[in-house]
């Protein structure tokens, strides 16, 4: 029963792979002739590819469950190889789809940018040719819009700079506090050293006095 289920599911996987290859071939044609925007046909093919990839993910998951449900000794090597191959083909198809989609989008962005630049050049030429008849107020308004845009960009940069300055100031205060604590510790060390030195001096003095007293007592005992 499990072998029959595996074969049926694998047959579905093969069918989905053929459908995916067909749609990928159709999608590659849009890469050869990129339009400013995705048309209905391109969107239909794109949606079909995504749907097929999702179905193939589900099919491979089902094949995994079938093989995992069987005894490890009962699973043939050919089934495992077939399952691995389906995963590899799915991965290759997904990479091809993503690569073509990225290439189409890049080409579309480039074409739109070129179109925008050409439109700006054409508009500039028209303004130049009609310079004598241009309305001064319209020109001033255009310049004002450009200046406002530049000011807005400058304001954003200044806000970022102020934020960075505040961060640096906060870090500087933290470092200054740490430095003060370090200096306090360093200054406290000499005081400890002086205290230890005084203790050692007093200990030596007491030892010397004790030794003198003992010597005197010995001499007195000897002469008496």
TrEMBL record:
Keywords: Coiled coil, ER-Golgi transport, Golgi apparatus, Membrane, Protein transport, Transmembrane, Transmembrane helix, Transport. It is found in: Golgi apparatus membrane. Residues 49-110 form a coiled coil. The keyword Membrane applies. Involved in transport from the ER to the Golgi apparatus as well as in intra-Golgi transport. It belongs to a super-family of proteins called t-SNAREs or soluble NSF (N-ethylmaleimide-sensitive factor) attachment protein receptor. Belongs to the GOSR1 family. It is a single-pass type IV membrane protein. Component of several multiprotein Golgi SNARE complexes. One of its GO terms (molecular function) is SNAP receptor activity. The chain crosses the membrane at residues 207-223. InterPro entries: Golgi_SNAP_su1. One of its GO terms (biological process) is inter-Golgi cisterna vesicle-mediated transport. This is Golgi SNAP receptor complex member 1. One of its GO terms (cellular component) is Golgi medial cisterna. It comes from Suhomyces tanzawaensis NRRL Y-17324. It comes from the Eukaryota.
């Amino acid at each position: 029963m499990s072998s029959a289920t595996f074969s049926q599911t694998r047959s579905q996987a093969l069918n989905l792979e053929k459908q995916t290859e067909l749609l990928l071939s159709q999608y590659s044609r849009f890469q050869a002739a990129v339009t400013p925007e995705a048309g209905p046909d391109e969107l239909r093919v794109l949606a079909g590819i995504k749907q097929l990839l999702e179905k193939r993910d589900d099919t491979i998951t089902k094949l995994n469950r079938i093989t995992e449900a069987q005894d490890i000794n009962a699973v043939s090597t050919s089934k495992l190889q077939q399952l691995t191959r389906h995963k590899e083909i799915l991965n290759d198809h997904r990479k091809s789809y993503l690569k073509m989609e990225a290439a189409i989008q890049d080409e579309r962005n480039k074409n739109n940018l070129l179109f925008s630049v050409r439109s700006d050049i054409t508009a500039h030429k028209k303004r130049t040719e009609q310079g004598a008849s241009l309305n001064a107020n319209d020109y001033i308004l255009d310049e004002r819009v450009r200046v406002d845009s530049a000011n807005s960009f400058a304001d954003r940069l200044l806000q970022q700079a102020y934020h960075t300055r505040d961060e640096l100031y906060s870090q500087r205060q933290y470092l200054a506090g740490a430095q003060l604590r370090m200096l306090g510790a360093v200054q406290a060390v000499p005081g400890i050293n002086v205290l230890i030195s005084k203790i050692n001096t007093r200990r030596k003095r007491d030892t010397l006095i004790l030794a003198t007293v003992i010597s005197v007592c010995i001499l007195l005992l000897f002469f008496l």
